[in-house]
Amino acid sequence: MIMRHGHAQPVHRPTVFVVDDDAAVRDSLKMLLKSVGQLVETFGSAQEFLDAYKEDRPGCLVLDIRMPGMSGLELQEKLNERHAIIPVIFITGHGDVPMAVEAMQAGAVDFIQKPFRDQDLLDRINQALEKDAANRAALAERGAIAKRLATLTPREREVMALVVRGKANKVIAGDLNLSQRTVEIHRARVMEKMQASSLAHLVRMVLEVEKS
Amino acid sequence: MTSRLSRKQRPNARIRGVGTSDTKRAGPTRWVQLELQAFLEAAVDALILIDVHGHIEVVNAAGLRMFGYEESELVGQKVNILMPEPDRSRHDGYLSRYLTTGEQRIIGTGREVRARRKDGSVFEAELAVGRIPQVDPPRFVGFIRDITARKQAEEGLRRSEAQLRTAQELANLGNYVVNFRGDESDYWSPELFRILGRDPAEGTISLDDYCATLVHAADRDRVRQAFHDLDAGLRSFDLEYRIVRADGSQRYLHHITQAVRDEQNRIVRHVGTMHDITDRRRAEDELRQMQDRLTHFNRLSTMGEMAAGIAHEINQPLTAIATYAQASQRLLAIGTLPREDLLAALEQIAKQALRAGEVIRRLRSFVKNREVRREPVEVNRLLEDLSLLAETDARHHNVRIRIEGIEPASVVQADPVQIQQVILNLVRNSIDAMIDVPEERREILLRARPTEDGDVEIMVQDRGSGFAVGSEDALFTPFFTTKAGGTGLGLAISRSIVRAHGGKLWQANNPDGGARFFFTLPELRGMQVDPGDSESRG
pTM for the full model? Predict the structure, then answer.
């Protein structure tokens, strides 16, 4: 069962999405993943998955590199276009190494050659899920900071910009043609609205949003 | 006739024996005069008599014709009127030098000079001058021959020789004549000396020395055999082989020779050309190497694609099998696998295993079901055609191919293209096996002969490294190869082609070192193939 909360919050249980044109491979993978208590959804083609997938769904994608119609590589390309951050594990056959290299360059987290030991696949899936969780946490953190930033007045933003550059209140007062007292009030508001515990914390948050 | 003869009309002139004015005299002298007149008139050369100062006294009809004068215009004139400059101004000097020093420059010897006609034109002439004895002051007689035509012929000859030489240089083609009778020496053209890297000053060498010192050791027997065949009655030969020049450089020659014989059929001389085809051969070699690389690349990439395709087809069921089994193990271990789920997984495992088997079966039938077109094929023709096909490759590796045809000629029912593929494959293997063998040993024997069962057995024998004991069985295993870059499919495919023809393919070591591959084809008895009709050519 998939629990949906309707908001982009990391409260979903992660799902392993399996895309493979081969019904037997698909079915056996579903059985394996369920045996370790993993949520699984399977798709018979790349298009089927694209139509069904929403970017806010946490998890990872196990993708056969060779498929009729849209290949695994093309699906990866489409996801990149959609800025989906879901980690991709490619399943490759013998002789597909050049394709796997291409996939890795396009951002795949890993690939595994068929046939594989179950534990090898499960380890890779666990790593991918951890990576997805971290990515989503970072993304959520950035979202929260952005929301707090949005509550600042233009004057408070000006003051904050100078504060994070390490300027003293007196200097800021001179730069903005304000009294030192007024600067102190704006500064306190900024710290409060941004929920910053220290100047260092504030600097980290500003850097975090500037990164994205 | 006599009117043409003239004599100088000077008072002190003493004309003896020649002259119209003397006709009054009777007796033998007159006969001499008449005979002399006849001589002079009949002469083709110009004849001129001059006195000590160079004045012309007598000139014959040929002289008048040659210089374009009337008799009256010349007699009494200085003889230098007949000369162009600088001789014209210097002639008086020549005369007086002779008279004072007695030094003979021209008298008694012939010399080529330039002469001048009345119209001013100049021509090449040969001049002989003699002094008339026992007269004083001295008088001289000159014979002049117009050699314009001869000069032109000489010039023409010189020019065509130069052109021939240039042509030979441009074509890297030299020619020679070897004379077998002692009366003439051998001839090598200048270009031949250059091709053979020999100084023309050192002269020519005998055929034996040529074979022993210039012909490449590995080609020597072949060249000697060719000369031997000429001795034995063959009219000509046409060979390509290598020479090693004195400086060590190696060249490829195309050598054509014809034997010229007398009525008793003895060889009088060899006439031959040697064409330095080193550059052409190098270009051919480069092209060939490029083609080899391309073919090899094509084969590899086709094989690679096929292998990836097969691997994918088989990996799918294998992956499913492994995953079902591993999932079942996990669930059984924690005791949460319902009986129905286990049965379903086992059913899937069995189904997928059969599916993998089906993939392999499809693959085999794909290989097997290629259409085979059988037709009557003459075995000896097959071998000859094949040696043509293999020749470039063999020559490239300095390998000789020898053919021993089947006696009496036999016909088999076969797909000529496929059987040629088999033999070609065996020949290629043999060539590859002899790369490290000294060139003299690099020979492949293609032999066909009847078996006791009435089939035709074809053998490809090389003198390469042979097989290690124990590796024989692996030879026919697909993908087994001892060659870098080999696909390991050649022998496996060859064997399946032969089997499809109802024959068998096997191998043995050559007792003299190297390998032998045999295969049999059932003979088609009582069937004749018109050689002109066979489609096996090509």
Answer: 0.40
Dist. CA B239–CA B284, nearest whole Å: 17
Domain that holds residue A69: 15-137
Domain B286-368 sits in CATH at: 1.10.287.130
Residue B512, class by beta-carbon neighbours within 10 Å (0-12 exposed, 13-18 middle, 19+ buried)?
exposed
- CB–CB of B316 and A117 under 8 A? no
pLDDT reading at B215 higher than 90: yes
Residues of chain B within CATH 3.30.450.20 domain(s) are 2-146, 157-276
Task: Give the range among A183-187, B209-213, B369-373, B381-385 with minimum mean pLDDT.
Answer: B369-373
Q: Rank A117-121, B35-39, B148-152, B484-488 by mean pLDDT and report only the highest.
A: A117-121
Of 3.30.450.20, 3.40.50.2300, 3.30.200.100, 3.40.50.410, the CATH number of B2-146 is: 3.30.450.20
Position with higher pLDDT, B536 vs B351 = B351
For the segment B506-517, the average pLDDT, to the nearest whole number, is: 86
CA distance A80 to chain B (A): 26
Residue type, B376: P
Q: Give domain status of residue A87, yes or no.
A: yes
- Within 8 A of A28 by CB-CB distance, chain B residues are 319-321, 323-324, 327, 345, 348
Beta carbons of A114 and B316 less than 8 Å apart: yes
Contact B348 A24 (CB under 8 A): yes
Distance separating alpha carbons of residues B161 and B176, to the nearest angstrom: 15
B115, β-bridge pairs: B123
Asked if pLDDT for residue B534 goes beyond 70, the answer is: no
- Determine the topology of domain B157-276 in CATH: Beta-Lactamase (3.30.450)
3-state SS, residue A57: coil
Question: Do A55 and A127 share a domain, yes or no?
Answer: yes
Check: CB of residue B411 under 8 Å from CB of residue B524: yes
How far is Cα B411 from Cα B529, in angstroms, rounded to an integer?
7
Pair (A109, A202) in one structural domain: no
Within 10 angstroms of residue B496's Cβ, the number of other Cβ atoms is: 17
Q: Give the pLDDT band (50/70/90) at residue B528.
A: very low
Mean pLDDT of A59-78: 86
Query: Using CB atoms, which residue from B319, B327, B351 is nearest to A115?
Result: B319
More reliable by pLDDT, B161 or A107: B161
- A9-15 LR contacts (CB < 8 Å, sep 24+): A9/A140, A10/A58, A10/A133, A10/A136, A10/A137, A10/A140, A12/A56, A12/A57, A12/A58, A13/A39, A13/A58, A14/A39, A14/A58, A14/A59, A14/A60, A14/A129, A14/A132, A14/A133, A15/A39, A15/A40, A15/A41, A15/A57, A15/A58, A15/A59
Q: What residues does CATH 1.10.287.130 cover in chain B? A: 286-368
Chain A neighbors of B326, CB-CB under 8 A? 32, 117-118
| 3-state SS class at B424 | helix
Residue tagged 């046409």 (tokens): B238
How many Å apart are CA B119 and CA B73, to the nearest integer? Answer: 13
Task: Measure in Å the smallest separation between the Cα of A38 and chain B Cα atoms.
Answer: 12
Q: Which candidate in B310, B313, B314, B326 is best for mutational testing of the A interface (most A CBs within 10 A)?
A: B326
- Beta strands A59-64; A15-19: pairing state: parallel
Backbone φ/ψ region at B423: left (φ over 0), alpha (ψ -120 to 50), beta = alpha
Q: Enumerate the residues of chain A whose CB falls inside 8 A of the CB of residue B350.
A: none
Q: CB A116 to CB B319 under 8 A? A: yes
Kindly report the CATH number assigned to the domain that includes residue A107: 3.40.50.2300
Class at the top of the CATH hierarchy for domain B375-521: alpha beta
Low-confidence winner among A138-147, B82-91, B262-271, B380-389 (lowest mean pLDDT):
B380-389
